[in-house]
Amino acid sequence: MEKTLKGVPLGTNLGLFQLQFALVSGRFLESRGAVFPALDNLGLQADAVRRSSAALRKGRWKTQDLLDNWQKIVQKEGFFTPHCHGGYRPVPCDLTGFRRPQLKGNPAKHFVAEAGKALPAIIVGIAVAVGSIGNYQEEGASSLVDPSIVEVPGIVEVPGAKRRFALPRLLVRWEQGDTREADVQTRLIEQAGKTLTPEEVAVFDAGFSLAEVRAKTPRFVIRLAKNATMRRNFLPQYKGCGRHSEYGEIVRPLARTHAGKLLEATACDATFGWEDEGIRLRAEVWHDVVLSEDKVGAQTVNVVAVFDPRYKEPWLLATNLEVTADNFAVTAEVVWRLYRDRWAVEHLPLVAKPMLGCSQAFVFGEESRLRLPELALLCGNVLSYVAATSSAVATGFWDRMYRATCGRLRRVLNRLDFSELPVVGEQLRKKASMTSHLKTGVEGHRRQKAVKLGQGVLLSA
């Protein structure tokens, strides 16, 4: 974690390191999201607790800089292998919300499945790179684990131990002036589209708008609603009477029932199949179609309906990747595999909220209310990475079938007292600032009488 703080000012980096350790060790889970009790539980002195909280509230640092440092660390370690399907690497994008029901002046709301409605929350947009990591043999332990802090066995290669991993590359926060969740969603689409390389494809779920994604993303795969309809990109033949058509014929990929009547699906342009883990999958494809509200000549997309016997409903996907009749079967499978990797982005909030205890928070500053969820997402990802690249650690004598999971590593770190840990690095220390000339106690914040200027009132400095 110390390496992620490269470039953070001296003193502030120590406060952030203490805060990060409180997150990964589960102290926020015990304090139910309160910052001061979580830091105090580390064994810090009262002054150190205040300095760490001040680093969160008004420190001069940006979360994106920490993300950039974290990506460089993972790439240098060499354990992360990006996924590639048909020459394209997936970049899943998603929105998550950290519930803040009592936060005043917060217009943001995020849908909560347990409640069945949208509740007040801090919205964060996430874009990740997806790959595989696992347990590998290397000289010594992982450089992210200091043996002097916690005894973690060396990295051992385990056959078949590779697992899917999402490496965060972009966090988009709620900004002043936003009035709805869609504002964060729009910025996430724009920023994710700008950062894509020619070999990368942005992947979105059904909560995103196809029209907006198509306009702002060079390459994408998006899931559509099962009742979605499209149009042909050519006009139907004129029937000899009435006005000429301005729109193409309706394309209904999946059959559905409306007002008691069965609306049959439109015949597909091609059908292809492949096997995955011994299971036969089938795909129906409609190519060069436009949105239902578009006229002929608009930008086209390809629609793929994947029928997987392991799921009750078929997957209805749309993409703007180039498709020809010769490689249509390959592209249908590639589109399916690209979207299947989207599920990796869901792991970040699953670790940050229930595992680290940041599903709720008690911070109210303009910056801290946004920074704490971002730090939780980053620290949860660091914890998952270290757990996956290190040998498994049992929680106790009862844990006989233990695996290398972030929950078990968090319990090991929770047993440590931060005050007893050795100094991690020379640049990670308290800043020796001159404060003897400053007033302390009540004199440091004594208020002066107001000076009346006409009808207004001006408080003197």
Overview of this protein structure:
The protein is α+β, with helices and mostly antiparallel strands and 461 residues long. It folds into 2 domains: 2-192 and 345-420, no CATH class; 227-313, no CATH class. Helices cover 27% and strands 23% of the residues. The protein is built from 11 helices and 17 strands. The protein has helices at 12-24, 27-31, 35-40, 46-58, 63-77, 181-195, 210-216, 328-340, 347-355, 368-388, 406-414; strands spanning 81-82, 89-99, 109-112, 117-133, 163-173, 200-204, 220-223, 230-232, 250-251, 256-258, 261-263, 270-276, 279-291, 301-307, 315-319, 450-453, 456-459. The strands form 3 sheets. Strands 1, 2, 3, 4, 5, 6, 7, 8, 9, 12, 13, 14 and 15 form a 13-stranded mixed sheet that branches. A hairpin with a 2-residue loop joins strand 12 (270-276) and strand 13 (279-291). The longest helix is centred in the last third of the chain and has 21 residues, at 368-388. The relative contact order is 0.16. Residues 136-160 and 457-461 have low confidence and may be disordered.
Count of helix runs: 11
Which ranges are low-confidence, i.e. pLDDT below 50, for 5 or more consecutive residues?
Answer: 136-160, 457-461
Tell me the count of domains: 2
Instruction: Tell me the number of strands.
Output: 17
The profile of the biggest β sheet is:
13 strands, mixed
Provide the β-strand percentage band: 15-25%
Structural class, from secondary structure content?
Answer: alpha+beta
Distance between the termini: 40 Å
Rg result: 27 Å
Instruction: Name the overall outline.
Output: elongated
